[in-house]
Structure formats: C-alpha cells, structure tokens
Amino acid sequence: MIKITKKKKNLKNNININKEYNIDEAITILKKYQTKKFIESIDVAINLGINPKKTEQNIRGTTILPHGLGKKIKIAVFTQGENINIAKKYGADIAGGSEIIPILKNKKHNFDVIIASPDTMNIVSTLGPILGPRGLMPNLKTETITNNIEETVKNFKKGKIQYKNDKNGIIHTTIGKINFSSKHIKENFIQLISEIKKNKPKNSKGTFIKKVVLSTTMGCGIIIESNNINIK
C-alpha cells in the first residue's frame, strides 16, 4: 500500500483539483504549498486540440522566457573553425566536432541543448539514436541548426526554451522556479502561451488550447481558467 505523505494529504484537503483557477490564484497556491527541501521547478502541461498523427498539425518551436528558467543551461555545440571559440566565449560548455562525441555518449553528462552548424550535421546525425530519445537532436524548427552560433548560444543561455507536443498532443515544459516572484512566473507563463498560439496549424479546427495545467515538481496540478488568459 502506497503511503500518503502529510504534505499530499494537506494538498488533497485544501486544493480542488477539478476546479479552474485564474493564473494569479494558481501561482499563489503553488507558492503556499511549496516544499522546503529544495527549490521546485514550475511545469506546464498544455493539452492541444490537434491530431498528433497528422504531421502538419504537430507543434514544435522555441520562445525566450523573459525571466529565464532559473538554472544554469548546459549547452553543447557542434561546429568548426572560429565558431568553436565563439561558442565557448558566449557560454557553451563544450564545442567542437567529432572529438566531443564521447562526451555526448556518456550518460553522466546531461546537456539541456545541443546546437549544430549545418556543416557538422553529418557528424551529429550519427548520434540520432542517442540524442533523439532525449529530445536533443538539433532541428531547424527549434533553431538549433544554425550558422549564427553566437546569437543562438546567447539566447539559450538567457532563457530560450524548446517545446513540442507528444504523441497525445500535449506540450510539457518548464517555465521557471517556484522562488521566482509571482509576477515573473506569470510573465513567463503568458509568453509561452502566446508563442504557442501563434503556431496554431491552419487546418486545426475548434479550440486550439483545450486545457492548461500548472504544477511544481512535488505539487499537484492546478487547472488554469481558459477565459482568464484568453487561450481559446
């Protein structure tokens, strides 16, 4: 039998998980019941009104959160020549060609973003079985295949995130830390929602964003009131 912790009992008794809350109420609740053991991340699950079996309806993109993620972003860059020095200068943790492959294969090294210049994709493609399942394979849609190494590294360092829907048509991503101010959490949240709305497929009918749930690492999910953020 699974033991229910005191915190989970408290959450269950004080939060209506079936009720919709406006974004300000949701953030207040998450902050009230945050754990004291560590600084939790704030996660968002966005249920889209798309058919994920149709390639043209799948959503994939990037956006720069105005207040970042609240953590150090580990970046690996596949590139050549002077771009190696540029990547390192602007914050890449490692940069190079085939010589950095062993580092990427080592599961002890967890990277958040893999960037590649087009002239190294023949090298990067050999890592498909490793990077693909981790969601790290460079892609034109997420702007991680680029000739502008400087700008790309700088943007990811200051809070650029990638997002895409899963096989169920749901986008899962992180928008910051619970120790952010309520204002900053809200602004990061609205930036993400606004960006996803811009990517609505032309052939997607009905309500595009059907449901949004905000949660923390150890907390329960809070359903966000759709009319409150005008997501229909």
Automatic annotation (TrEMBL):
<dbReference type="InterPro" id="IPR023673">
    <property type="entry name" value="Ribosomal_uL1_CS"/>
</dbReference>
<dbReference type="GO" id="GO:0006417">
    <property type="term" value="P:regulation of translation"/>
</dbReference>
<keyword id="KW-0689">Ribosomal protein</keyword>
<keyword id="KW-0687">Ribonucleoprotein</keyword>
<comment type="subunit">
    <text>Part of the 50S ribosomal subunit.</text>
</comment>
<dbReference type="GO" id="GO:0022625">
    <property type="term" value="C:cytosolic large ribosomal subunit"/>
</dbReference>
<dbReference type="InterPro" id="IPR002143">
    <property type="entry name" value="Ribosomal_uL1"/>
</dbReference>
<dbReference type="InterPro" id="IPR005878">
    <property type="entry name" value="Ribosom_uL1_bac-type"/>
</dbReference>
<dbReference type="InterPro" id="IPR023674">
    <property type="entry name" value="Ribosomal_uL1-like"/>
</dbReference>
<keyword id="KW-0699">rRNA-binding</keyword>
<dbReference type="InterPro" id="IPR016095">
    <property type="entry name" value="Ribosomal_uL1_3-a/b-sand"/>
</dbReference>
<keyword id="KW-0810">Translation regulation</keyword>
<comment type="function">
    <text>Protein L1 is also a translational repressor protein, it controls the translation of the L11 operon by binding to its mRNA.</text>
</comment>
<dbReference type="GO" id="GO:0019843">
    <property type="term" value="F:rRNA binding"/>
</dbReference>
<protein>
    <recommendedName>
        <fullName>Large ribosomal subunit protein uL1</fullName>
    </recommendedName>
</protein>
<keyword id="KW-0678">Repressor</keyword>
<dbReference type="Pfam" id="PF00687">
    <property type="entry name" value="Ribosomal_L1"/>
</dbReference>
<dbReference type="GO" id="GO:0003735">
    <property type="term" value="F:structural constituent of ribosome"/>
</dbReference>
<comment type="similarity">
    <text>Belongs to the universal ribosomal protein uL1 family.</text>
</comment>
<keyword id="KW-0694">RNA-binding</keyword>
<dbReference type="InterPro" id="IPR028364">
    <property type="entry name" value="Ribosomal_uL1/biogenesis"/>
</dbReference>
<dbReference type="GO" id="GO:0000049">
    <property type="term" value="F:tRNA binding"/>
</dbReference>
<dbReference type="GO" id="GO:0006412">
    <property type="term" value="P:translation"/>
</dbReference>
<comment type="function">
    <text>Binds directly to 23S rRNA. The L1 stalk is quite mobile in the ribosome, and is involved in E site tRNA release.</text>
</comment>
<keyword id="KW-0820">tRNA-binding</keyword>
